[in-house]
């Protein structure tokens, strides 16, 4: 007797109709016409059933703080950093926890069940670290929260930042972060990468650095990150986030850089909503898009994931925790409108992101944890096109969120009474 059977599901890889059997919080069967009894039977009726969404780059310590202590009038990165500096002395643990817990509620409702959040360690009180460790504990039954020790003001530039970062790791933060392009000099930036990678290697930890979040084509800390990754044997445990300077680099240099990144096993994390908002601000026209070279990185064998980065904080006044919005923006900006490319964008907020975080038991296969999202869509491309409603969200075989289907009624002569946005129309072939 199984706990749950999901019937007639369409899977992201194109298989349909498929039945999914669940027992003790794990998937035990994925097959056509599953013959078994279950305490609960859910008919997907051909809807897309997917592993949950994963956000590989976020800032939960600042989320939902928009307007505190004032609004970012220019909307720029530097004013956002200045605003965060003004807000930090006013922070309390209770306020951080309350905002982060509210955002986790949003995330669950959107089928987002794993988040890697950078947490600022430049405040010697480490209030945000303590707060997010408490949030991590509270949400553990339904959401995987992975924390990055992030020296927002520069690990060498800010007094005591390296000591604070080390203390945060001792407290239980599990990923080493950095921001080399914000150090005072290029040389200091390179030195910060070396120090932080060696620290991660000593402790057996992963690395995720804000890297080259700049329009400057000479900001090349990703090269240094790849080199130290290779030197220290950190292959598969390191990610470079943002990498926006790559959109301004000359093609010859990039043709050498991408193979270096691939050989080192470094992953790339783009943040489409924020990258295109904050970068290219000094351009008139032609105006740069701002996001890193996603198609070229993918073609070069580098794993690429998409992060949300910010939601209603000093840097970004918008957002709702919807990773389909993130993937859709990435798709458009990178001009990835081919069928295979659109599916890569879906993977960038699901399985590729899960791999970068090192999530265990992720996916739809026997033995995987029964974390699933049912979407009001036929397939991943449909889900992106529609920003599809999350009809059901399941964690370890238990339904934890439901949303009614998106419907509309029409009162038009000789026309249907309802609208079905899933209709794909006539398709060649």
Automatic annotation (TrEMBL):
What Gene3D superfamilies does this protein map onto?
Metal-dependent hydrolases (3.20.20.140), Urease, subunit C, domain 1 (2.30.40.10)
- What keywords were assigned to this record? Hydrolase, Metal-binding
One GO process term, biological-process aspect: cytosine catabolic process
GO MF assignments: cytosine deaminase activity; isoguanine deaminase activity; metal ion binding
Q: Hydrolase as a keyword? A: yes
Give the top-level enzyme category: hydrolase
**Residues in Amidohydrolase domain copies:** 40-400
Q: Which Pfam families match?
A: Amidohydro_3 (PF07969)
InterPro entries tied to this protein:
Amidohydro_3, Metal-dep_hydrolase_composite, Metal_Hydrolase, Metallo-hydrolase_Enzymes
What EC number(s) does this enzyme carry?
A: 3.5.4.1
NCBIfam families for this protein: PRK07572.1 (NF005748)
The entry's protein name is Cytosine deaminase
Per the UniProt record, the source organism is Parazoarcus communis
């Amino acid at each position: 007797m199984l706990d749950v059977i999901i019937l007639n599901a369409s899977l992201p890889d194109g298989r349909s109709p498929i039945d999914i059997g669940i027992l003790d919080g794990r998937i035990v069967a994925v097959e056509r016409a599953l013959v078994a009894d279950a305490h609960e039977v859910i008919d997907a009726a051909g809807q897309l059933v997917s592993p949950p969404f994963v956000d590989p780059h976020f800032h939960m310590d600042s989320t939902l703080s928009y307007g505190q202590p004032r609004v970012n009038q220019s909307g720029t990165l530097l004013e956002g950093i200045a605003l965060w500096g003004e807000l930090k002395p006013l922070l309390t643990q209770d306020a951080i926890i309350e905002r982060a817990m509210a955002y986790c509620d949003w995330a669950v409702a959107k089928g987002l069940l794993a988040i890697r959040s950078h947490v600022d360690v430049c405040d010697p009180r480490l209030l945000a670290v303590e707060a997010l460790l408490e949030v991590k504990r509270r949400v553990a039954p339904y959401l995987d929260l992975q924390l990055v020790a992030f020296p927002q003001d520069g690990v060498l530039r800010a007094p005591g930042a390296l000591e604070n970062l080390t203390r945060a790791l001792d407290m239980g933060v599990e990923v080493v972060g950095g921001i080399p392009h914000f150090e005072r000099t290029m040389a200091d930036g390179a030195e910060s990468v070396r120090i932080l990678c060696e620290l991660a290697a000593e402790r057996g930890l992963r690395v995720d650095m804000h890297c080259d979040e700049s329009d400057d084509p000479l900001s090349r800390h990703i090269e240094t990150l790849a080199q130290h990754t290779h030197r220290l044997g950190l292959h598969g445990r390191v990610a470079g986030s943002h990498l926006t300077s790559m959109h301004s680099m000359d093609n010859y240099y990039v043709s050498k850089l991408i193979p270096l990144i691939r050989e080192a096993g470094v992953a790339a994390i783009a943040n489409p909503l924020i990258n295109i908002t904050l970068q290219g601000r000094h351009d008139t026209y032609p105006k740069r898009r701002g996001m890193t070279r996603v198609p070229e990185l993918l073609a070069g064998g580098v794993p690429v994931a998409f992060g949300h980065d910010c939601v209603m904080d000093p840097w970004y006044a918008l957002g709702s925790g919807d990773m389909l919005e993130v993937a859709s923006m990435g798709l458009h900006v990178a001009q990835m409108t081919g069928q295979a490319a659109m599916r890569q964008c879906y993977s960038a907020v699901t399985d590729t992101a899960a791999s970068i975080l090192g999530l265990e038991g992720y996916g739809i296969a026997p033995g995987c944890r029964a974390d699933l999202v049912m979407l009001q869509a036929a397939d991943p491309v449909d889900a992106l096109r529609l920003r599809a409603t999350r009809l059901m969200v399941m964690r370890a075989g238990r339904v934890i969120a439901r949303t009614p289907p998106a419907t509309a009624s029409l009162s038009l002569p000789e026309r249907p009474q309802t609208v079905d946005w899933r209709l794909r129309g006539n398709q060649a072939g």
